[in-house]
Specification:
mainly alpha; two-stranded antiparallel sheet
Protein backbone atom coordinates (compact mmCIF):
# COMPACT_ATOMS: atom_id res chain seq x y z
CA UNK A 1 0.00 0.00 0.00
CA UNK A 2 1.36 3.44 -0.93
CA UNK A 3 2.08 6.10 1.70
CA UNK A 4 -0.81 8.17 0.34
CA UNK A 5 -3.20 5.23 0.73
CA UNK A 6 -1.86 4.56 4.22
CA UNK A 7 -2.44 8.18 5.20
CA UNK A 8 -5.94 8.24 3.72
CA UNK A 9 -6.82 5.00 5.55
CA UNK A 10 -5.57 6.28 8.92
CA UNK A 11 -8.38 7.13 11.33
CA UNK A 12 -6.85 7.21 14.82
CA UNK A 13 -4.04 9.14 16.46
CA UNK A 14 -2.35 5.82 17.33
CA UNK A 15 -2.37 4.71 13.67
CA UNK A 16 -1.07 8.11 12.60
CA UNK A 17 1.72 7.96 15.19
CA UNK A 18 2.82 4.59 13.82
CA UNK A 19 2.69 5.93 10.26
CA UNK A 20 5.16 8.63 11.35
CA UNK A 21 7.35 6.07 13.13
CA UNK A 22 6.31 7.12 16.65
CA UNK A 23 4.75 5.34 19.57
CA UNK A 24 1.34 6.85 20.30
CA UNK A 25 2.45 7.98 23.77
CA UNK A 26 5.51 9.75 22.34
CA UNK A 27 3.36 11.66 19.85
CA UNK A 28 0.90 12.62 22.60
CA UNK A 29 3.75 13.75 24.86
CA UNK A 30 5.15 16.11 22.22
CA UNK A 31 1.74 17.53 21.32
CA UNK A 32 0.06 17.75 24.70
CA UNK A 33 2.63 17.56 27.52
CA UNK A 34 5.42 19.88 26.38
CA UNK A 35 4.36 23.39 27.46
CA UNK A 36 3.56 25.70 24.54
CA UNK A 37 6.23 28.21 25.61
CA UNK A 38 8.89 25.46 25.35
CA UNK A 39 7.96 24.23 21.87
CA UNK A 40 9.51 27.13 19.92
CA UNK A 41 12.35 29.62 20.14
CA UNK A 42 11.71 32.96 18.46
CA UNK A 43 14.39 35.12 16.85
CA UNK A 44 14.69 37.58 13.98
CA UNK A 45 16.93 37.57 10.92
CA UNK A 46 17.41 40.39 8.42
CA UNK A 47 15.68 40.29 5.03
CA UNK A 48 17.31 41.55 1.83
CA UNK A 49 15.43 44.85 2.17
CA UNK A 50 16.69 45.41 5.72
CA UNK A 51 13.45 44.48 7.50
CA UNK A 52 13.41 41.64 9.99
CA UNK A 53 11.89 38.19 9.44
CA UNK A 54 10.65 36.48 12.61
CA UNK A 55 11.69 32.84 12.78
CA UNK A 56 9.95 30.42 15.14
CA UNK A 57 12.23 27.40 15.43
CA UNK A 58 10.74 24.28 17.02
CA UNK A 59 12.56 22.43 19.81
CA UNK A 60 14.37 19.24 18.82
CA UNK A 61 11.56 16.80 19.67
CA UNK A 62 8.96 18.80 17.78
CA UNK A 63 11.35 19.46 14.90
CA UNK A 64 11.95 15.71 14.47
CA UNK A 65 8.20 15.09 14.46
CA UNK A 66 7.69 17.87 11.91
CA UNK A 67 10.45 16.42 9.71
CA UNK A 68 8.73 13.05 9.70
CA UNK A 69 5.43 14.72 8.82
CA UNK A 70 7.24 16.64 6.06
CA UNK A 71 8.70 13.42 4.65
CA UNK A 72 5.27 11.76 4.65
CA UNK A 73 3.57 14.74 3.02
CA UNK A 74 6.33 15.03 0.40
CA UNK A 75 5.88 11.37 -0.51
CA UNK A 76 2.11 11.86 -0.78
CA UNK A 77 2.55 15.06 -2.83
CA UNK A 78 4.92 13.31 -5.24
CA UNK A 79 2.46 10.43 -5.60
CA UNK A 80 -0.42 12.83 -6.27
CA UNK A 81 1.64 14.65 -8.92
CA UNK A 82 2.66 11.35 -10.55
CA UNK A 83 -0.88 9.96 -10.61
CA UNK A 84 -2.63 13.15 -11.68
CA UNK A 85 -1.56 13.91 -15.25
CA UNK A 86 -4.15 16.67 -15.70
CA UNK A 87 -2.88 18.82 -12.85
CA UNK A 88 0.91 18.95 -12.49
CA UNK A 89 2.07 21.15 -9.64
CA UNK A 90 3.72 24.43 -10.51
CA UNK A 91 5.11 24.61 -6.99
CA UNK A 92 8.88 24.56 -7.02
CA UNK A 93 10.24 25.84 -3.72
CA UNK A 94 11.38 23.51 -0.94
CA UNK A 95 10.81 20.38 -3.03
CA UNK A 96 13.02 17.34 -3.33
CA UNK A 97 15.14 17.36 -6.51
CA UNK A 98 14.26 21.02 -7.11
CA UNK A 99 16.63 23.97 -6.83
CA UNK A 100 17.07 27.52 -8.04
CA UNK A 101 18.72 25.99 -11.12
CA UNK A 102 15.77 23.75 -12.02
CA UNK A 103 13.42 26.66 -11.37
CA UNK A 104 15.47 28.94 -13.64
CA UNK A 105 15.33 26.37 -16.45
CA UNK A 106 11.53 26.67 -16.50
CA UNK A 107 11.91 30.39 -17.19
CA UNK A 108 14.73 30.26 -19.72
CA UNK A 109 14.03 32.34 -22.85
CA UNK A 110 10.83 33.79 -21.37
CA UNK A 111 10.25 37.43 -22.16
CA UNK A 112 8.99 38.25 -18.66
CA UNK A 113 9.49 36.66 -15.26
CA UNK A 114 7.50 37.91 -12.29
CA UNK A 115 9.28 37.27 -8.98
CA UNK A 116 7.59 38.07 -5.68
CA UNK A 117 7.98 37.35 -1.97
CA UNK A 118 4.61 37.25 -0.23
CA UNK A 119 4.83 39.15 3.03
CA UNK A 120 4.22 36.97 6.10
CA UNK A 121 2.91 34.14 3.94
CA UNK A 122 3.31 31.24 6.38
CA UNK A 123 1.83 33.13 9.36
CA UNK A 124 -1.18 34.08 7.22
CA UNK A 125 -2.22 30.40 7.17
CA UNK A 126 -4.08 29.49 10.35
CA UNK A 127 -4.91 26.23 12.15
CA UNK A 128 -8.42 25.99 10.72
CA UNK A 129 -7.19 26.47 7.19
CA UNK A 130 -4.57 23.73 7.58
CA UNK A 131 -7.09 21.34 9.14
CA UNK A 132 -9.75 22.16 6.56
CA UNK A 133 -7.35 21.64 3.66
CA UNK A 134 -6.53 18.09 4.74
CA UNK A 135 -10.22 17.27 5.20
CA UNK A 136 -11.53 18.76 1.94
CA UNK A 137 -8.67 18.45 -0.56
CA UNK A 138 -9.86 16.17 -3.39
CA UNK A 139 -6.63 14.14 -3.32
CA UNK A 140 -6.53 13.65 0.45
CA UNK A 141 -9.95 13.80 2.17
CA UNK A 142 -8.42 12.77 5.50
CA UNK A 143 -10.34 11.78 8.61
CA UNK A 144 -11.01 14.98 10.60
CA UNK A 145 -9.16 13.54 13.62
CA UNK A 146 -6.02 13.04 11.51
CA UNK A 147 -6.34 16.48 9.93
CA UNK A 148 -6.55 17.94 13.45
CA UNK A 149 -3.38 16.15 14.56
CA UNK A 150 -1.53 17.34 11.44
CA UNK A 151 -2.60 20.93 12.19
CA UNK A 152 -1.49 20.50 15.81
CA UNK A 153 1.95 19.32 14.68
CA UNK A 154 2.31 22.05 12.07
CA UNK A 155 0.79 25.15 13.71
CA UNK A 156 1.86 27.36 16.60
CA UNK A 157 -0.10 30.33 17.95
CA UNK A 158 -2.78 29.64 15.30
CA UNK A 159 -0.38 30.00 12.36
CA UNK A 160 2.12 28.10 10.27
CA UNK A 161 5.42 29.23 11.77
CA UNK A 162 8.25 30.53 9.61
CA UNK A 163 11.01 28.14 10.67
CA UNK A 164 9.10 24.86 10.88
CA UNK A 165 10.24 22.08 8.53
CA UNK A 166 6.65 21.29 7.56
CA UNK A 167 5.41 24.80 6.77
CA UNK A 168 6.69 24.77 3.16
CA UNK A 169 5.05 21.48 2.15
CA UNK A 170 1.76 22.51 3.73
Amino acid sequence: MSRLEQLKNTSTRAEFAKLLGYKPKALSFILYKIPENEKYVEFAIPKKNGDLRVIKAPNEKLKQLQRRLTDLLNECFDEICTNNTQSKSLSHGFRKDHSIITNAKRHKNKRYVFNIDLQDFFPSINFGRVRGFFITNQHLKLDPKIATVIAQIACHDNELPQGSPCSPII
